[in-house]
Amino acid sequence: MKEFIYSRNAVYEALTAKRRQIFSIEIAEGVQEKGKIEQILQLAKEQKIKVSRVGRPKLDKIHQNNQGIVAEVSGYPYSDVIEILENAKGELPFVLLLDSLQDPQNFGTLIRTAEALGVHGVVIPSARTVDVTPAVVNASSGACEHMLIAQANLSQTIDALKDNDIWVVGLDQAGAELEARGAERHLKGALGLVVGSEGEGLHDLVRKKCDIVLKLPMRGKIESLNAAVAGSVALYLAYLSRK
């Protein structure tokens, strides 16, 4: 299956990751060959990928926020849980599980944070969730091109993580408030962090499977952070605890 990814970072990261087949790249007429565009052209030349100059209206039909570049690529190469665990390569596994996120921006933001912090892989459900679409690729600034992402049954995945001595922490507003030293206790070591969906939070079965369910402490007047922000904060706390 072919699809179009857009924006300079997304195309650049797809070229550097080399996990997809890139069939062609189209750049809008008038776009200067400097910065990221210059780097993309160099990589395309090295990889013998066809590059064409086209009118911007053609690219705008694919997406309005194309930044003057679009690439036709093969579908996203999903991974599996076994490969994610193998990706730890001697480190304590660090896995992010997303329970039925629906918003591409939230999904992309969490992938970008996870990739930046050295998460070994992301697991999403096989159904009732946003997939790795071009919108998600763009929202992640291309980070998903480097991240191992698996589609699997979350309940079964949590069982598999526990079988590999990985502590599974759910993040949900109905959980116990994370205490001052709670991050050191619950977010260090081999960890699977489960972030609930924007509206429903964690599904009941997923919640029951977690070793513990926590929520971030709030001091302001709003009740909660959105999934991407809360998940990113928890990932950073885990990253610091692991160090």
Tell me what the structure shows.
- This protein has 243 residues and is α/β, with parallel strands linked by helices.
- It folds into two domains: 2-74, 60s Ribosomal Protein L30, Chain: A, CATH 3.30.1330.30; 81-242, Alpha/beta knot.
- It is 36% helix and 23% strand.
- It contains ten helices and ten strands.
- It has helices at 8-17, 36-46, 56-60, 81-86, 104-116, 134-139, 154-163, 182-186, 204-209, 227-242, and strands at residues 2-6, 22-28, 50-54, 69-74, 94-98, 121-124, 149-151, 167-177, 191-195, 212-215.
- Strands 7-6-5-9-8-10 form a six-stranded parallel beta sheet, sandwiched between helices.
- Helix 1 (8-17) runs parallel beside helix 2.
- The radius of gyration is 19 Å and the shape is elongated.
- It starts with a strand and ends with a helix.
- The model has no long low-confidence stretch (mean pLDDT 93).
What percent of residues adopt helix (DSSP H or I)?
25-40%
Instruction: Count the domains.
Output: 2
Q: What is the second-level CATH architecture of the largest domain?
A: 3-Layer(aba) Sandwich
Question: For the CA atoms, what is the radius of gyration?
Answer: 19 Å
**String of helices and strands:** EHEHEHEHEHEHEHEHEHEH
CATH topology heading of the largest domain: Alpha/beta knot
CATH top level label of the largest domain: Alpha Beta
Write the CATH homologous superfamily of the largest domain. SPOUT methyltransferase, trefoil knot domain
Straight-line N-to-C gap: 41 Å
Structural class: alpha/beta
Shape: elongated
Q: Main β-sheet: number of strands, strand sense, barrel status?
A: 6 strands, parallel
Number of helices: 10
Q: Which residue ranges are poorly predicted, with pLDDT under 50 across at least 5 consecutive positions?
A: none
* Strand order, sheet with most strands: 7-6-5-9-8-10
- In total, the number of strands is 10
* Mean pLDDT over the residues: 93
Strand content: 15-25%
